[in-house]
Inverse folding.
């Protein structure tokens, strides 16, 4: 059928999408979300069809992706015919029936996800089914490899390449900014890629960005690592696993995360990691609530690492309160700098960092890694290495912690009664920080003066909220009326809460990887 | 945040969708497929957000649905702020974790589906999860009730209301056009609604439409039934279960059908059915391949019927070949007319119809229903009733079978060898018929002269393909090169086919309800 092209001036998120009138679609026998083949000269393309009930008869509406591919003028005629669904959809449909997928099948699915050949509905069904039925080890490994095949890779000529990753979920976790310079200062290679915040107050890429540029290409990253042994860059700019960004798009509204393992391990394989430590923050208010669950996840990471040829160890870490005092991109980067410059001693941040760095150093052959890591901070070698990395990535290597830009608007919150800090609500801290502007406003966040077990007197300053905009500070403050960030008292109350009728169960969802 | 309105001149399939620039969305903390609240004066609306990377900064793009709701002019400013996901999404998320849903929760989900408050991804996840985990009886009943609550209902002042339904999957099934007049002619009420074809060559609504108008309102339908005791109308025009049309939209590309039972039974409840016969065509090439599977499905229908207060019986019927000779809307309606006018005697069509009509008549209190049904055809009472219904629905009640419009283009296919018809491929027949133009071209289709077990001599006419357009006839003929419609020989070959390597498994999907 010949139809006239109409431009829609809209993009479809990388997918080739066209719009047909109901009449023309019925004539072609295509339903909404079915497929059409477009021809013009030697160019042809299979597109996802949206059907509109109003107007468009005789026309085919082109989204930007299709418009750019054909490069034809508006109102030109183009041949439109019925096309079959992509073969990868049949693999997804078989997966819906509970069948496991072969390596080639996973490859085809991931390729079509990246090339935009599968609709959001089809991707949602795939992700939902992986969530519902679970992935086996082979499928996870094949998914990792398929994500790498469709992305770019970092090739370093080093025998040992170390890496670390946190499954996330605990606020204030600036560990990476300490671990990378410690490891690199000891002569080992650590090409660290990080993510930006999705549901948290700050991702490592957001934090690091307040110290230096993080949007490097693979080539630029390679130069930094070859020069300094380390780097801290945003993974999203590297296209290491472009499929993952598309999966996350679907996982986010559904609050599911079945790709956690294959996605993380795939990205580590893509930078050539040979030895890896996975940090699994554990406890109420994190992604992993119990030590039992975390131990099982650790087992899965180690098994998948074996399949992919990455020696993997895991560290279960205490996650029932923020790490350190600072939450928010700049506040956290400042705290990490203060530790490396030895201006401040923040026991929990240091403890966590030296344990993880120590495990890496030991995996690489060093003895007593924890002590070596601690010494690397104390001696100033870690600070020196961080400044080298800052310079290599194009930042200001003379930067002082006190020069870092924190939001101009702030509000102190004081204790209403005396006692001991019995609990801290991570999810509420994140919500308040995000309302104050994080992660977009790098200078926004929270600084906590009191942590679990600390003695508090009525009127003591508990924490300060920072914001770049006053309106956001006001909104964050308003949230505090509904949310209790900390529990202060002499003993835990026995009643957690009553449930007296059917209620809506809303669980905090943490999607960071 | 105040943003200027920009019209997109596109509809979003009933959903309130807006487009924001990446910058504005990040400032608001909203990701793609997140939600925003729009205010203007006293009007407010929660919309689904699509984020665009190119342009639109300072603007909010309005799809038709949002434009129509607010009725504001382009470039007017409107307040846009972050909104929470709808509560029903939390129910869906809990279902993803394997939890069963309460009645209120299902109600909220279905209400939000109908009102457009859930994105396609969220609906796809819900449907996929129901497919993966299965529905229990309570959930199925609650889904039926929720679909009815959000739709219109037929209220007839009759104590006994009979109904029939086929789960579909067998081509040429014109049974309804016989059953409705038989039952109505015996003084019983049968307010029959039918669907149009989705994956088949013809739905009952498509068939009936060649005899009379089928797009009636609930009020018009009621008048027809009160006058004639029966009707045959298109369910889609009635809004009996608008949620179902949206679920089908998602189910179609995924080739899954988890709503089959609640959807069918909901629509029957919506017309007030008290007694129901479900036809389950069984055999290779239909939806239900084995008698065992069909018996289990029958059990589910009867159990769900009990929950909903509908006395339900099921008929497993032979589905390994088309019912009768004719496939395609007009061809099938003509065959049904020829039977009722006693011009032709088509044993399998009559046999199926009198069994199903007989079951209904017996459920309503009659003795020996099958014989009564047979007699109702023979006596001409069924024909008279059909003509009454045609007249009441606004058709030509004098119509003769030979006057019905069949496609002008036709092609006879002859046997290449002699033998007995050993098998007939339903799926291929449907594909050829659809390629010839069905269901959109009502006059297209196939007429079969030979059926299972018939003796065939080389050169005998096997079937004729009809089309309204010559180009479609050519395409259908071309398909025959790849597809073998019938197997003719002296005995079945032992080897079905070889499987020598990993292949793509594409299963024919039948979505009719």
């Amino acid at each position: 059928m010949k139809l006239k092209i109409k431009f829609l001036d809209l993009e479809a998120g990388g997918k080739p999408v066209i719009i047909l009138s109901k009449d023309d679609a019925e004539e072609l026998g295509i339903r909404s979300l079915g497929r059409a083949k477009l021809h013009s000269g030697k160019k042809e393309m299979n597109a996802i069809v949206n059907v509109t009930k109003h107007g468009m008869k005789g026309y085919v509406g082109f989204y930007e992706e299709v418009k750019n591919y054909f490069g034809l003028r508006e109102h030109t005629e183009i041949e439109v015919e019925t096309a079959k669904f992509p073969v990868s959809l049949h693999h997804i449909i078989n997966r819906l029936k509970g069948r496991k997928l072969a390596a080639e099948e996973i490859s085809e699915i991931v390729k079509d996800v990246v090339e935009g050949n599968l609709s959001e509905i089809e991707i949602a069904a795939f992700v939902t089914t992986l969530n519902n039925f679970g992935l086996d080890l082979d499928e996870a490994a094949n998914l990792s490899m398929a994500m790498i095949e469709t992305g770019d890779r970092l090739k370093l000529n080093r025998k040992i390449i170390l890496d670390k990753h946190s499954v996330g979920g605990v606020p204030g976790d600036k560990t990476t900014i300490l671990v990378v310079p410690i490891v690199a200062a000891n002569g080992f290679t650590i090409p660290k890629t990080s993510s930006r915040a999705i549901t948290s107050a700050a991702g490592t890429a957001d934090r690091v960005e307040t110290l230096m540029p993080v949007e490097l290409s693979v080539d630029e990253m390679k130069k930094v690592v070859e020069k300094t042994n380390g780097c801290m860059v945003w993974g999203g700019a590297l296209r290491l696993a472009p499929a993952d960004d598309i999966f996350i798009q679907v996982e986010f509204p559904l609050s599911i995360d079945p790709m956690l393992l294959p996605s993380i391990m795939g990205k580590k394989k893509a930078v050539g990691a040979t030895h890896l430590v996975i940090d699994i923050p554990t406890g109420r208010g994190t992604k992993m609530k119990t030590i039992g669950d975390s131990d099982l996840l650790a087992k899965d990471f180690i098994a998948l690492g074996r399949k992919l040829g990455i020696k993997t160890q895991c560290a279960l870490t205490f996650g029932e309160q923020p790490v350190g005092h600072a939450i928010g991109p700049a506040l956290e980067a400042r705290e990490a700098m203060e530790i490396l410059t030895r201006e401040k001693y923040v026991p929990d941040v240091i403890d966590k960092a030296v344990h993880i760095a120590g495990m890496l150093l030991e995996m690489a052959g060093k003895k007593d890694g924890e002590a070596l890591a601690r010494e690397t901070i104390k001696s100033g070698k870690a600070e020196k290495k961080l400044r080298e990395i800052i310079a290599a990535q194009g930042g200001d290597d003379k930067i002082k912690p006190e020069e870092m830009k924190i939001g101009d608007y702030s509000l102190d919150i004081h204790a209403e009664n005396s006692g001991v800090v019995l609990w801290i609500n991570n999810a509420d801290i994140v919500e308040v920080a995000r309302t104050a502007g994080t992660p977009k406003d790098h200078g926004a966040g929270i600084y906590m003066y009191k942590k679990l077990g600390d003695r508090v007197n009525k009127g003591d300053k508990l924490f300060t909220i920072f914001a770049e905009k006053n309106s956001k500070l006001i909104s964050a403050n308003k949230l505090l009326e509904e949310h209790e960030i900390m529990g202060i008292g002499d003993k835990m109350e026995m009643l957690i809460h009553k449930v007296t009728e059917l209620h809506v169960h809303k669980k905090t969802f943490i999607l960071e990887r």
Remarks:
- Chain B touches chain A through 58 residues (CB under 8 Å).
- Chain B has four domains: 2-83, 87-134, 162-237+263-401, 406-489.
- Chain B has a mean pLDDT of 95.
